[in-house]
Write the structure tokens for this entry.
Amino acid sequence: MSQGTFRLIASVKRGSVPNMSEAWQVYDTIDTARLGAARLLQHERVVRVMVVHNESPRSLVEWLQ
């Protein structure tokens, strides 16, 4: 997998993710993005997390549940 910057997009049961800083960060590696996703998935409202490349247009890297 190519190195670059990554972002997380969280799917939640209800509401939004404004208090979840992991969802607003930019990650330098896929491994740090996965760690951020794991922290997001600990929240009861988060159903799954999509890791995407931080570019326009965004491209999917992987889904985590």
The first helix runs from residue 30 to 40. The first strand starts at residue 6 and ends at 12. The mean pLDDT is 86. The two ends are 20 Å apart (CA to CA).
